[in-house]
Amino acid sequence: MKDNKNSEVTTPLPTREGQGGGSLASKYSPAEVEGKWYQYWLDNKLFSSKPDGREPYTIVIPPPNVTGVLHMGHVLNETIQDILVRHARMEGKNACWVPGTDHASIATEAKVVNRLAEQGIKKSDLTREEFLKHAWAWTEEHGGIILKQLRKLGCSCDWDRTAFTMDGPRSESVIKVFVDLYRKGLIYRGVRMVNWDPKALTALSDEEVVYKEEHTKLYYMKYYVCPSSDSSPVGAENDKGNQSPLPNRGGDGEGAGNVVHKDDRGYYAVVATTRPETIMGDVAMCINPNDPKNQWLKGKKVIVPVVGRVIPVIEDEYVDIEFGTGCLKVTPAHDVNDYMLGEKYNLEAIDIFNDDATLSDRIATAQQKSLAEVSVPDDFVIDLQRYVGTERFACRKQIAEDMVAAGLMEKIEDYDNKIGCSERTGVPIEPKLSMQWFLKMQHMADISLSPVMNDDIQFYPAKYKNTYRHWLENIKDWCISRQLWWGHRIPAWYIEPGPTPTLPREGAFPWGKVIVAENEEEAYKLALETYPILKTLEAPSGAVGGATGFSLRQDEDALDTWFSSWLWPISLFDGIRNPGNEEIKYYYPTADLVTGPDIIFFWVARMIMAGYEYEGMMPFKHVYFTGIVRDKLGRKMSKSLGNSPDPLELIEKFGADGVRMGMMLSAPAGNDILFDEVLCEQGRNFNNKIWNAFRLVKGWERPTPDPSRGGRGEAGAQLSNESETLPLTGERGEGLSLATAWFEAKLRIAAEELADDFSKYRLSEALMTVYKLFWDEFSSWYLEMVKPAYVDGKPQPVDRATYDATLQFFEILLKMMHPFMPFITEELWQALYERQPGESIMRAELHLPAATDADRQLCTDFEAAKEIVTAVRAVRSQKNIAPKEKLVLEVVSNAQPSSDSEALPLTGERGEGLSLAIQKMANLSAVNVVTEKSKGSVSFLVGTNEYAVPLGNLIDVEAERKKLQAELERIEGFQASVEKKLANERFVQNAPAAVVEMERKKLADAQQKIASLRESLASL
RNA sequence: GUCGGCAUAGCUCAGCUGGUUAGAGUAUCACCUUGACAUGGUGGGGGUCCUUGGUUCGAGUCCAAGUGUCGACACCA
């Protein structure tokens, strides 16, 4: 048979025959099952969503970099999203998961530049258009690989909606928003101190700077003092003195705390810095006016060593008296704080670097200029020409050596410092003054803070609300321009004189003025409108384009990547270009956002801003922050450590379902997850367990009569129509065992737990709930109870009711597990009953009736029955009695009636069922109710009831006595603690009545147990 | 430096508004293969709930301090 043949190699299921369960391989092999069903889902458009009357459930994917490759972080993130989406879909919602990629301007541009470099092409040799051609080619070649990989994971994205942050609709949206914000006065252009990445050659936002701890040096440099407050240089005339520079010498004590340095060249101040090369940009020295050490420097001028520039000593309380010597060199062009001082005291900013952080020849010209103004002794000066063109760190090393050699360095100390580095290229940031575009953030912060603080948007875990608030309350303007080509080019044009030479160029023309518009044509129109004088430059009618007397030059810069990402939840539904369209109305706001806390500012906060600015509503209702995936030693996964497994290899090894489960088993929201392959192994083992449970059930002969299920079709498999389906809810079918009733109750209770877990986004707990439900309750208890006995080597047939119920349970379990393990559940769901073409578990809804008090009582009773079984098994284990050997259980019913319902009813209808269940599970030949247990029996307590297993002479009296004695002591200890509590008057007075009552009952139970244990001991 | 989180079994974590002498998964140990599954079954062992103090009749849970750890932000040149 076909089935037999296949089962040797792999494990396809017989979907029609229904028979042949026994011929299934004993191991589940996911490889071809997964490919097959993913294709089936695609073919049947099961992921696709269109607006309709159902409640929408929307997730937009955090777009991975277009050239990215799937890593473990994605696996975690996308698995969570897929679980949420599949869960919502099975709740009957219109689930829509929109996939896409991000152009990641700086990262992608860097990759393209690298690749070009490998081909010997320099970016600077290309025009913008040529470069972009390469970039698009690269994007098309590598782009979307990651989206293909998501399919292997089982992600149920609506692929027809796949978007890219730089595709047509998204780009247009970005431009529209830029223009809009500019017109609202929220975007401006100006010269500011920005974070400059000298490798990528672009400005960065504050968020793109990461601080790294580094061991560096602190250099103490000598700044010689000009002897008088005029700018006379230190020189010959100074020789007459070893004259102290101190004012009021020997006077009233002012300057008593002065710390003065002097050597044979004269008096000097000492300035400590980590960056000696920046002295070339020094324009002042600053002291704290309250610093007693440096009073003597007030009003003086000092000479910048090496450079020879004479600079003033200024005073500002900004300077920290405690740090270094209390003397701060001021380099406005290369330090944010110095820049502020420069602004305050109107100091010149000398930019000493080129864009790539090599030393600019400006240092040499500045030196010549200052030396021409004031002459300083030659031995204070080194010709700066020698540093021009050197790289900043090489220069630092060199200048430090040179200063030591020239006697201009006081000392050098080791120093630990935190250095701001580019998040992308990793190189240290150079603070740099430059003209950039900014978005004013105060307004954005104002509209986006309260929705999070008052939980209109809920964060999971909520602790990130603090982080969010802190950032918004200290917000700074967002530098949105990047000196890159790959990205959305800023829609700003500058008015310049046109090519027509005869027209007037001078005068009141707005040369250099900026026009912001959606395109050049608009800009042109707007320019004429804004500056009517330009009309006088227009060529005679009929002339076209460049024939005018002015032209427009578009800004070279591109926008920060996040300036497009922040519109993602809106632009995906075309809400910017086409406000109020059907899709945006239906899908927005989205339901859940799943992302890492590392981009809370980059992305989450800014999406919230854009959401309120453009839709007047939050972009999502819940944010689920995932943790960082680390290895089992807690280290971040990284390429250099080689500790990051390839997700695709893992999928090959454990199956996608196994990997998903491995990821989710230890991924509570917000906590870092320590990933270990053994978790995937556990996932795979679980799949195998499900598979084998299915083999068991499928191996049962279908009881007759066996009407084709066609008539009732799918309805027969759904518990939602309660009265029609499982007969258990209504009238109990004759042959239905207590096991069936119990498991049905169990399912309903579990469904409620699951719903609760999902509502709190506790997905790993939800997974653990179904894991235990399937493995422990269903497989280990339920199936073991209903599994047919073997007679003469043959399994007995299963009765019809049990058979039907079991299949229905299986189906419900598959549905519960499906969001976590989509492939195996689809495979088995399809094989469980005959299905119509195109049907899928994906669209099967799962609604169970609420659990009742009776359900809970049944489960409680059943737990007691389980305890009895476990206790009997323990007796076997301790006495080395083979599982096959049948035993007898005695229920000791003393005259004292058991205190209440806690005692297990073993009489009556339910009692009989429980009794039978216990017999089967503990392999007993009988359960006898006795008033006194047999001699030579081992006894145990469940609740306050006593049970005994007669063992005849197998019993070891001494061991038994010991065991009972230990148990007795334990309970007596417990009793003592309860008695003590009850003896405390204040407890009885203050504690709620119910609590006191509970304690009384505990005491009564303990007393009863003690009595029964003493009796047992005595009877030994 | 400022702010915040966390600290419970060997490991990873639950433990919700204080109320059984603290739970799960995994690991570990012992025993068990003819009947779905050794990727399995059964049973067992394993905790000073970080420390100290406080509030309370009662604290793993609340408060304070300390220690350790992780993170965010700010940075001193």
Structure, explained:
The model is unreliable at 1-22, 235-242, 248-254, 542-546, 706-735 and 897-903 (pLDDT under 50). The relative contact order is 0.09. Helix 21 crosses helix 25, helix 23 packs antiparallel against helix 24 (822-832) and helix 25 packs parallel to helix 26 (908-922). With 1020 residues, the chain is of the alpha+beta class. The longest helix is centred in the C-terminal third of the chain and has 27 residues, at 853-879. The chain is elongated and about 120 Å long. It has 29 helices and 32 strands. The chain binds one RNA strand of 77 nucleotides through strand 9, strand 13, helix 12, helix 20 and helix 22.
List the helices and strands and how they pair.
Blueprint: H1 2-9, H2 30-43, E1 56-60, H3 72-90, E2 94-98, E3 100-101, H4 105-118, H5 128-142, H6 145-153, E4 163-164, H7 168-183, E5 187-197, E6 202-204, E7 209-225, E8 261-263, E9 266-273, E10 284-287, E11 301-303, E12 310-315, E13 327-330, H8 336-345, H9 362-373, H10 392-405, E14 409-422, E15 430-439, H11 442-453, E16 458-460, H12 464-473, E17 478-479, E18 481-482, E19 492-497, E20 514-516, H13 520-530, E21 550-554, E22 558-559, H14 562-565, H15 568-571, H16 582-587, E23 590-595, H17 600-614, E24 620-625, E25 629-631, H18 647-654, H19 656-665, E26 673-675, H20 677-699, H21 738-759, H22 763-786, E27 790-791, E28 794-795, H23 800-817, H24 822-832, H25 853-879, E29 887-892, H26 908-922, E30 924-930, E31 937-942, E32 945-950, H27 957-983, H28 985-990, H29 993-1019
Parallel strand pairs: 1-2, 3-4, 10-12, 16-24, 23-24, 25-26, 29-30
Antiparallel strand pairs: 5-6, 5-15, 7-9, 7-11, 7-14, 8-9, 10-13, 11-12, 15-17, 18-22, 19-20, 19-21, 27-28, 29-32, 31-32
The chain binds one RNA strand of 77 nucleotides through strand 9, strand 13, helix 12, helix 20 and helix 22.
